[in-house]
Amino acid sequence: MFGWFGKKSDAETIEKHAQRIANKRAQAPDRWDSIQALSQLLAQAKKDKAADRIASIVAALLPRFGYYTDPTITDQEEKDLAFRVILEGGADGVPAIRQYMKASESLTWPLKMLDRLLSPSDVTGELLAVLEPMDTEYQRDPQRKLQVLQALEERRDSRIGPAVSRFFEDVNETARFHAVGAVLSQEDAEAHRELADKLLTGEESVRVKTRVLERFAERGWALTVARPTLEKAPPPGWVVSASGAPARR
Fold this sequence. Notes:
Layout: H1 2-22, H2 28-47, H3 51-61, H4 72-88, H5 94-103, H6 108-117, H7 120-131, H8 143-153, H9 160-164, H10 173-183, H11 193-202, H12 206-219, H13 227-232, E1 238-240, E2 246-248
Antiparallel strand pairs: 1-2
Helix pairs in contact: 1-2, 1-3, 2-3, 2-4, 3-5, 5-6, 7-8, 8-10, 10-12
């Protein structure tokens, strides 16, 4: 019974600090004290090997990354402290970070956390899980999708090409730009060469076309479907060589 009451007290304490940390209008010293209090609770939870309590503490800290406050230096100090505390939670905090990523407008901080807590392969898997339900249709605010595609450009994994190539047909030009960058940077980019070639025939964006042509030129790939079109009207600064491969003018 004493143990049960103790856990309930911890839950109430965590909730109290969570509300303060999530409140942009709370006094900065109060938020700071709450972050430090959760740091102490986390240390005890680690000693107790209480994974659920660690996850609850991490979940309480994560909303701090969803807003900015003035002065900027205070905002950064609070986030840096919360970041360090979350990392102390180790793998037990990953489920909370994963849940936060599903709704967060910005993926910058949670991605930094996962990069420190998981293997590169596992982080890629988390990004692909966020991308999976997204589609290629118009969105009023596609920033989350763009962040995921941009993050995947920097990673090498055989799962990226099959998962991202469908965004070659995204209505958003920036999404197409990052999708091409992500897919054609992979070691198995050859598998998506034909799709990228077809993209050039209907693509209106010069920078998307240029990005595709850069990848073809780097690999010495000849154009096939798009060759007649680009021989007649190549993007500025490009020509199609006798072999069919694009080259800088």
